[in-house]
Design goal:
Strand content: 25-35%
Number of strands: 45
Distance between the termini: 44 Å
Number of helices: 17
Largest sheet: 10 strands, mixed
């Protein structure tokens, strides 16, 4: 019996993080788990646990305990352990400056703005060092070295957050790097802070016009004395060999450039907005060797055989005047292609390599599979490796089946998650966008949380979202962080503020999704003001529109990128946007009610539950006539619809045929149980099947409908239709992308056409996770792995078998160890094996609806396949 993977707030051995709550978690393994009785968490000031500052017993099933952080002191290392009857395991965490005022000051330089600068400070340390910590932040992006050694093995520091609202500084243990004679150097580039960013060619100096740094090195000596090295006017500042750097455009270096002295100046910039970090480290998680070929244009191309986010690095052994790498994600007609990147150059250029050198970018990243190489021979180019960069997250799900294409789809989904989970959840990693679109991660969050332990990653993003919400007066922007651009004629409307449903609803979807997967009440409590704020924001607008509980006012994005309008290239779907918005209004009210109940906020729980019930009644009254769907609801004449028609006229010069009985509209009503009677449910299901038949058995859904489509089908006796859609191979479909050679998921169903040509370049990424939301159907329906209810402890295992596969298997990492489901068909029989980790409650639901309690270890079931078993279960 043992405990492993000990975490604080989802982090392993965190140093200098923000601890607004303290949730300790771990994984237990071993056959004698059931004999352990209570588990106890102890926190102490010493590794021998003599100076205990907190202790509590935990609930066994969750392997998780939240306690109040009121005992925490600044700049202190705490040791903690979990112990049972026959085991114990320990770890540590460390606080930052907390409420201590900074002694260091922000510094910059007086000369005109540079693309990158290097700050430096020399100091001595003549006594034995006990500990040394550096508290630091550079804006835009920074890399620090102490005596030539990297300070922290992470990149693109300090990550991307709302720098105008608060700044997350980092804490590093540099005890092992201190010498008698020392030099601390910090190179600072542009990044999101001042480099080109955002739509329509982008903007510069969004948050500031010059790089700046704050650094506070604190050394504690063995004799009890202390020493400080602070950023101030005594620091040196020079130009850098990095001459150009941009998130979109890449980086240019001149290795022969001589450092020119700049004048360091002390700034009076606010230090009260500095706060401990929540952002996870960005690290290289995988390394790839390329293959090389010459394309039809005669260009040397490196193919890394997988689309990744990151950069390349390698050693150049002989002098070169210039080496240039250009990054792209596609070939077209056998040639390197990058037109879909819009204005993003995605280049890495190194000039004047006078001697052998190892080169890599510093303040940018690329989304790529292919790299065009200039200035190197093929043999020289093959020395370069591809480094996949992402925020450091633990992967928690694996899958295999008898279908190679389905297996590739699951790989593609996970890769798009890896590639777009870099500091924040982005929409794409390559073109001139790379924004934290709230709706995109909202629809993908459940799948993301099966694939990886997303708790800490979401916690950081949700804190940024809350800061932006406060700044926006309760609204949640369509992307977070949300740079504030002064309005001008012709400005992109997405930069004018405001909020829309689905996107804003990420404020309630992400916290509840995270809680469902981790049961972290401490984090849910932190997120609750965000949830309440968003629901209250819609409610106030609702009350200003006669309190009808129909979200049929304001601009909405509706079912983004759906295929059911008949307008080529349209971004708007045919589904009534008011229906989509009102369903999500109900969902956010219900999520907020559920969170309030979990947190024992009784008055709030009652209030938001009543609101959710009233919204549901409004949906039923508007969209149903008895048991029949109302095909001409009042919302088709509402302000939202008028705005939609104006947008459609401006975009395509056409009128939209807005409907409620689209695949998306029907799926939303079915999946969320928004119908008056069982008879109405059956009629909705019949209509959904008819819509599929009318589309030739193809899906037509966009961002709002796709996540619920297969679930709605399967939950309503249409398993065959759901699996037929999943395994469909012609366009539009998930496996069409696989057949086209995709290694990630696409932004559009038709990002590439059947002949392999790109469908358009205006908004077209080959690496976008939204439609990868289908993976939760594979987990929850195909494998039948269903999380416990919000306030429950029992897993439900209810696999759905399909003629498209002979076997399928998946393993999900839980707090008690791996949970595996595998089913194998043999003739008309199917054998299912469920391996349940210790101390885990679960039931198995057979095809006939009967339930069996599962035991720890291996459980096996043999059943006769029945064509109509799902209909019987749902009746």
């Amino acid at each position: 019996m043992k405990a492993e993977n000990l975490k604080v707030n989802g982090l392993v051995e965190p140093i200098g993080y923000s601890y607004d709550h303290l949730t300790f978690s771990w994984e237990n393994t071993g056959e004698d788990l059931d004999e352990q009785g209570k588990l106890t968490v102890t926190v102490a000031l010493d590794s021998a646990f003599k100076q205990v500052v907190a202790q509590a017993d935990c609930r066994q099933q969750d392997n998780l305990l939240t306690i109040a952080p009121d005992f925490l002191q600044k700049k202190t290392r705490y040791f903690w352990r979990v112990q049972g009857a026959s085991f114990q395991a320990s770890s540590f965490f460390e606080t930052g400056l907390m409420d201590e005022g900074w002694q260091a000051k922000w510094i910059s330089y007086s000369e005109p703005a540079q693309d990158a600068v290097c700050f430096s400070k020399k100091f001595t340390s003549s006594k034995p060092v006990k500990t040394a910590r550096i508290y630091m932040m550079g804006l835009g992006l920074y890399e620090a070295r102490l005596n030539g050694q990297a300070v922290g093995i992470e990149y693109l520091l300090p990550g991307y957050h709302s720098y105008d609202l608060y700044q997350q500084y980092q804490t590093f243990d540099v005890t092992h790097l201190i010498n008698a004679e020392n030099e601390l150097t910090v190179t600072v580039g542009n990044g999101w802070y001042k480099g080109r960013f955002l739509f329509d060619g982008g903007f510069e100096n969004i948050y500031g016009d010059k790089q700046k740094l704050i650094a506070q090195l604190e050394i504690a000596y063995e004799d009890g004395s202390r020493e400080l090295v602070l950023s101030d006017g005594t620091w040196g500042c020079t130009t850098s060999f990095i001459k150009e750097n941009s998130i979109y455009d890449g980086e240019r270096q001149d290795l022969a450039a001589k450092a020119e002295k700049l004048t360091a100046v002390v700034l009076d910039d606010d230090r009260a907005t500095l706060t401990e970090r929540l952002d996870l480290p960005v690290k290289p998680v995988r390394v790839y060797n390329p293959v090389a070929f010459t394309d039809k244009n005669g260009d040397l191309i490196l193919d890394f055989e997988q689309e990744i986010t990151g950069w390349i690095a390698g050693r150049v052994e002989s002098p070169k005047k210039q080496v240039k790498f250009t990054f792209g994600e596609l070939l077209q007609d056998g040639c390197f292609y990058r037109d879909n990147l819009r204005t993003a150059k995605q280049e890495f250029i190194v000039d004047n390599i006078d001697q052998a050198a190892f080169i890599r970018p510093h303040f940018t990243y690329f989304g790529f599979r292919y790299v065009k190489v200039e200035g190197l021979s093929e043999a020289e180019a093959l020395r370069f490796k591809g480094y996949s960069l992402q925020s450091e997250l633990e992967e928690t799900f694996s899958f295999a089946s008898s279908s190679a294409k389905l297996n590739q789809l699951l790989s593609n989904i996970k890769w798009s998650q890896r590639d777009n989970f870099l500091s924040i959840p982005t929409d794409c990693p390559q073109r001139d966008e790379r924004l934290g679109w709230t709706g995109d991660i909202g629809v993908f969050a459940n799948t993301a949380s099966y694939n990886m332990e997303t708790r800490a990653f979401f916690a950081n993003y949700l804190r940024i979202m809350r800061a932006e919400q406060i700044a926006q007066g309760g609204a949640v922007p369509v992307f977070v962080p949300y740079p504030k651009i002064k309005p001008f004629e012709g400005i992109n409307p997405f930069l004018l503020g405001g909020a829309v449903s689905v996107w804003g609803d990420a404020a309630t979807i992400l916290p509840m999704t995270s809680y469902r997967h981790c049961h972290d009440q401490g984090q849910l409590k932190e997120d609750y003001p965000l949830m309440k704020g968003w629901t209250d924001y819609i409610l106030q607008k609702d009350q200003a529109h006669q309190n009808r509980h129909l979200f049929d006012f304001d601009m909405q994005l509706g079912d983004w990128l759906a295929l059911d309008t008949g307008i080529k290239g349209s971004v708007m779907g045919a589904t009534d946007s008011s229906l989509v918005a009102t369903v999500y209004y109900w969902l956010s009210a219900q999520n907020t009610a559920n969170a309030a109940k979990i947190l024992d906020y009784q008055a709030d729980g009652d209030f938001y539950q009543q609101l959710a019930d009233e919204i549901k009644e409004a949906i039923l009254a508007c969209y149903f006539k008895g048991d029949d769907l109302n095909l001409a609801p009042e919302t088709l004449k509402a302000p939202t619809e008028q705005i939609r028609q104006q947008m459609a006229q401006g975009f395509a010069g056409q009128k939209l045929a807005t409907k409620v009985d689209t695949q998306t509209g029907l799926s939303l009503l079915l999946h969320y149980g928004l119908y008056p009677t069982p008879a109405a449910r059956h009629k909705l299901a019949a209509r959904l099947k008819a819509r599929l038949d009318e589309a030739g058995g193809s899906l037509t859904t966009g961002f709002a409908g796709t996540p619920v489509l297969l679930h709605a089908l399967s939950e309503n006796g249409l398993d065959d239709e759901a699996f037929d859609l999943l395994f469909k191979e012609d366009s539009p479909s998930w496996l069409f992308e696989v057949s086209q050679g995709a290694t990630t998921t696409w932004e559009r169903w038709d990002s590439l056409l059947s002949d392999g040509h790109i469908s358009g370049t205006d908004m077209n990424s080959m690496n976008h996770y939204a439609y990868g939301s289908v993976e939760d159907f594979i987990v929850e329906k195909m494998l039948g792995i269903n999380l416990p209810e919000l306030t429950g402890e029992t897993w439900t295992i209810a696999p759905h078998f399909t003629s498209h596969l002979t076997w399928a298997s998946g393993t999900l990492t839980t707090a008690n160890g791996p949970l595996t489901v595998k089913w194998v068909k043999n003739g008309n029989q199917v054998e299912t094996t469920v391996v349940l980790p210790p101390r885990t409650k679960a039931v198995f639901i057979k095809q006939d609806g009967s339930q069996c309690q599962l035991k720890s270890g291996s459980n096996q079931f043999t059943e006769i396949l029945a064509d109509n078993y799902q209909e019987a279960v749902n009746e």
